[in-house]
Amino acid sequence: MAAATAQAPSEPKASSPVDLSTIPISPEGKASDESKSNGDKAEEQITVFHDPENFNVKHPLMHKWTLWFTKPPSGKGDNWNDLLKEVITFNSVEEFWGVYNNIAPTSELALKSDYHLFKEGVRPEWEDVQNKHGGKWSYQFKEKRNVPIDELWLHVMLAGIGETLEDEDDGELMGVVVNVRKGFYRIGVWTRTIGKSIPGGGDGDVAGGKGRSTEKGRDILLNIGRKFKEVLKLPASEAVEFSGHTDSAHSGSTRAKAKYTV
């Protein structure tokens, strides 16, 4: 399981993060000449036993993940789709660290910027078909100067790709988000449901709640909230809140009323 391997590497972090625009869109399709010459063997899982001297092992993640970036609006009526940029898709621990060590840390982003790390094929938007029945756990850090936001965001990302925010087969986690605003940082965890069955959920839609009671769905979400709170290292006196995307959309500029808190 990726959770056991998604740890910080011993190499020092790159001293000067590169511009997001310089990162290739996807690492896919860049097999080495040796892999290409092996034909069908190119799909074979590489382990340390293939080359123990160079240790060219790849630790696969359970899912492919895509990093997105929202750049600050220019104030000229920018469209959301123009601000939201797909950066890169990866599927191994090594690729994650390659991306992380070459992008600007959250603490250095301009105001109104966002990072989104979502499962491949899921856009970080309420309207996405896989998100529209869901919601998110979130917490705002208001004392920005005293918040180790880079460390916290890294730990949330590792918990996401390491599959430790939910139990096996829950199928709720869609992605994680960090928002940089003038008065606060906010970190969120998006889920596929709000604890209820998705209308018309198919057989393959585990998180659609087929055969899942509302009580069971609620327990799963609360468990995710508790784990999220632990990753953020929040004291018991602080609460993380869960709200549905539909409620958030209808609330406009005001905050949606929390469905759950832990």
Automatic annotation (TrEMBL):
One annotated Gene Ontology cellular component of this protein: eukaryotic translation initiation factor 4F complex
Keyword annotations of the record: Initiation factor, Protein biosynthesis, RNA-binding, Translation regulation
GO molecular function, one term: translation initiation factor activity
Sequence ranges of Polar residues compositional bias: 245-254
Domain of life of the source: Eukaryota
GO biological process, one term: regulation of translation
Entry keyword RNA-binding: yes
Basic and acidic residues bias spans: 30-41
Annotated InterPro entries: TIF_eIF4e-like, TIF_eIF_4E, TIF_eIF_4E_CS
Chain positions covered by the region annotation Disordered: 1-41, 243-262
Keyword Kinase in annotation: no
Transmembrane segments: none
Family that this chain belongs to: Belongs to the eukaryotic initiation factor 4E family.
The protein's assembly and partners: eIF4F is a multi-subunit complex, the composition of which varies with external and internal environmental conditions. It is composed of at least eIF4A, eIF4E and eIF4G. eIF4E is also known to interact with other partners.
Function according to Swiss-Prot or TrEMBL: Recognizes and binds the 7-methylguanosine-containing mRNA cap during an early step in the initiation of protein synthesis and facilitates ribosome binding by inducing the unwinding of the mRNAs secondary structures.
Protein name stated in the entry: Translation initiation factor eif4e
Protein species of origin: Coleophoma cylindrospora
